[in-house]
Write a structure and sequence with these properties.
This protein folds into two domains: 214 residues, NAD(P)-binding Rossmann-like Domain (Rossmann fold, 3-Layer(aba) Sandwich); 81 residues, TATA-Binding Protein, CATH 3.30.310. Helix content is 30%, strand content 23%. Helix 2 runs parallel beside helix 4 and helix 2 packs parallel to helix 6. The chain is globular, with a radius of gyration of 21 Å. The N terminus is likely disordered. The structure holds flavin-adenine dinucleotide. The site of flavin-adenine dinucleotide has 36 residues, from helix 2, strand 5, strand 6, strand 13 and strand 17.
Length: 411
Amino acid sequence: MSLVTRKMAHSARGAQGLPRGVSGRDASGSVFRRSEEIGTSGYNPAVPQRIRIAGGGISGLAAAVLLARRGVSVEVYDRHRGGGGRFAGGWQVLENGSSDLDAFEELRAMGLEPEFPAIRATRALFLDGLGRTFEVGSATPYAYFVRRGGGEGSLDAWLRTLALDAGVILREGEAAPPDAEVIASGPRQADGVARELVFTSDLPDTIAVMFDPAVTPTGYAYLFCLGGHGTFGVAQVRRVNRLGGARDAAWRRFREVLGEFAVRGEREHGQFMNFCAPRHLRAADGRWYVGEAAAVQDFLFGLGNRLALRSAALAAEGIAGRWDDVAFRTGLLRPMRTTIALRFAYERMGRRAFTVFCRRASRGDFRRFLIRLQRPGAAKDALARLVMAAWRERRGCRHAPVCSWCRERES
Ligand SMILES: Cc1cc2nc3c(=O)[nH]c(=O)nc-3n(C[C@H](O)[C@H](O)[C@H](O)COP(=O)(O)OP(=O)(O)OC[C@H]3O[C@@H](n4cnc5c(N)ncnc54)[C@H](O)[C@@H]3O)c2cc1C
C-alpha cells in the first residue's frame, strides 16, 4: 500500500495573536485584563522575572519559549538528557481534523513558526474487524506526521532549538525542584495505555489504522511507515490487561493486509496516558499546569500534541498577566468535553458499527468528516454532561490539582 506524501518546508511569517478574552474574572476569581491594557514591551510588575518549568516535553518547551521571548528568565528541568523525554523517534500526528483552523496556522498565531519537517497526511487505509479495508482521503491534510523523541528533525528538537535561541536555560538530567512554578512533567496516572514498536523498514509509505473492538477493545491499532521509518502501536483505555494479545493480533492483521516487509532495529516500549478535564491551568497554590500534566488530551483518540501546545500558549499568556478565560473554555475545555461524548459512543460500537464508521470516513473528504464529528454542539454538550455524571471518579485521582472531572479507573 503506497500512499502519496509530501515533505513540508514552512517559511517564517508574521505571528498573529491568539484570540483573547475580555476583561473580567477568571475561574479562580482573579482579575484578568484585555491584552491591550498590558502591552508586550516594558517592565510589567505582574510578570514574574524568573520561572522554573518541570518537564522539557513539548508543552514545557513551548511555554518556555513564549515566556523567554517576553523577557522572563526561564529554566527548564528535564530528567532526560538531549530532549524528547519519553519518546523513541516514532511517528505521531499533529492532528488537523478537530477544527477548520489549520494546526500550522495555529502554531504561527502562537508565535511558534513551524519549521520542523512534517508530512502532510491526505490519505490513509482503515481496516475494520470484518476483514475489509477502506481508503480515506482529504483535499487538505487531516494530520501532519512528525517525529517524536530527541532525534534530529523531531518536534521536540525543533522546540529545544527555539528554546535555546530564546535564551532558555535547559537543565537536562536534573529532576525539577519541588516548587517549580510550571508543571509540564507529563502523565501522572495511567488512564490509558499504549505499546509501540519503532523500526526501520522497506515498506512503502503507509498510514494504516485498524478499528476492531474484538482486538483492541476501547482502542485502536496503527501502523505508520514513512520514508522507511515505521511506528506500530496499540492503545486502549479499558481492558488493558489484553494489550499484549491486542499487539500480537493487530501486528498479524497488518502484515496480512500489507504483505511481508522488513523490520530492522526495532525498539519496543510501553506508555501511559492521562485524561481529565482541568478547571483552569493554574492551581489554587498559583502553580501552572500544562500539557499532559494538566491531562490535556483528546478523550476520543488520545491525541494530545496540539492541545499540549495550545495549553502552553494559554498558560504563558496567563503567567504574563493576560489570562484568556474565553480561549481556555472554547479552545480547550469544550473540545475536550465534546470528545468525552464521542468516547462514550465509541466504546459502545461493535464491529459492524466500526465498518459503518470506516465506510462513512471513506466517502467524501476525511478532514471534513473529522471536523463535523468533533464540532461542539448542544447535543454533544448534553451527552457529555450525562456521561461525566455517570463516569465520575469518586475515589480521588492523581491528576494535577486542576482536575475538575475524570473517569473512574479500572480496578
Ligand atoms: C504511545 C503514544 C502515542 C501518542 N501519539 C500521539 C499522536 O499521534 N498525536 C498526538 O497528538 N498525541 C499523541 N500522544 C500524546 C502526546 O504524546 C502527549 O499528549 C504529549 O507528548 C504531551 O506533551 P507534554 O509536554 O505535556 O508531556 P511529555 O511529552 O510527557 O513530556 C514530559 C517531560 O517531563 C519530563 N519529566 C517528567 N517528570 C519529571 C521530573 N520530575 N523532573 C524533570 N522532568 C520530568 C519527562 O522526561 C518528559 O520529557 C501519544 C502518547 C503516547 C503515549
